[in-house]
Amino acid sequence: MGNYTNYVIRQNGCDRYYYWRGSPPTITKIFYGLERTLDWVDLQHEIQFLYRETYTVVIDYDRKVFLFWGNDFLIDHVAHISHLVEIMRSHTWSGWDVRWAAWGVFDVAEYLDIPISSVCEPLSEKPWTEENRQYHLQWWLEFDDPDVETVITHRCLDGTIADYITSHWVDETLQLGSDLLSILKTRSTVLLPHERDVSGCIYIDEITKTLDVWLGYPFFDSGIIRKIDCYWSGWNFCRNDGGYFEHLRKTGRNPEQLRLSREEAIKPILQYLHQDLQYRNVWNTERARKNDSYISEEHALELE
């Protein structure tokens, strides 16, 4: 369902559903505020149900909440998401509670108060066999490289804390189960990377047998969250909604020196907005030319 986007408009307690058969909702479709976003939604097809495991935008008039999930640009700029949300709240969506659905379809279902089955495909009934485990372990080891994607912090039974990195995403790594603990014993610890390089975190606390997870960029439901007991039997699972800095705080470190500056965070967002020619083609109308909230260099300075 990666070629679809759900749009949900909630007003007076009623939901209307629309879909766009195309790429995820680019920032330029939703960044410029309510009126521009509604103009785009008006071009979409109204439907009677939500497509499952699909990027989603929710416009809730009743609570003045704008919830969104999915953008190709943000996959490679996870550290910029919180800054983007802040800009939208304070400028283009002023007066609205702008939220990023940090857990994808799970946050969408929770917010709309609908069953998770409404937005997720049914879980496979096939058991996780020893053959599956071995295949995934070999694949993970073979394709792991020195690039940073996920930070793994391990609190050992003796209380010591060690940090590791992997180029794999969080869900791929969690699927290793207890094999991950064996892998870490063979790995060298690392200095904590800068926020700009981190796309997800796992905090493994062996003392409390707790997994504390920041998913980073939520892809379509892989089943890992709903089947965590399958891979980590007997462990507690906690979701981290505060990102890398919440991870650092929970593990007793000072995050300030690793923080992305506001200027560094805003720059690629503005560049993306300027370079998205698709937006200019879609809105190449007299109305758009006369009433254009496209970000200018002056506006960029204001944001900084």
Word description of this protein:
The chain is of the alpha/beta class and 304 residues long. The chain folds into 2 domains: 157 residues, no CATH class; 129 residues, Nucleotidyltransferase, domain 5 (2-Layer Sandwich), CATH 3.30.420. It has 14 helices and 11 strands. Strands 3-2-1-4-5-6 form a 6-stranded mixed beta sheet. The chain has a 5-stranded mixed beta sheet with strand order 8-7-9-10-11. Strand 1 and strand 2 form a beta hairpin. The two termini are 37 Å apart.
Task: Describe the protein's topology.
Blueprint: E1 4-11, E2 14-21, H1 27-30, H2 34-41, E3 45-47, E4 55-60, E5 65-69, H3 72-75, H4 81-92, E6 97-100, H5 105-112, H6 130-143, E7 150-155, E8 161-166, H7 170-174, H8 179-185, E9 200-205, E10 210-214, H9 228-231, E11 236-239, H10 243-250, H11 262-275, H12 277-282, H13 286-290, H14 297-303
Parallel strand pairs: 1-4, 5-6, 7-9, 10-11
Antiparallel strand pairs: 1-2, 2-3, 4-5, 7-8, 9-10
Largest sheet descriptor: 6 strands, mixed
Q: What general form does the structure show?
A: globular
Low-confidence stretches: 285-298
The number of strands is 11
Give the % helix.
25-40%
Task: Return Rg in Å.
Answer: 21 Å
Strand order of the largest sheet: 3-2-1-4-5-6
Q: Tell me the β content.
A: 15-25%
How many helical stretches?
14
Total domains: 2
Mean pLDDT rating: 86
State the main characteristics.
alpha/beta, Nucleotidyltransferase, domain 5, five-stranded mixed β-sheet
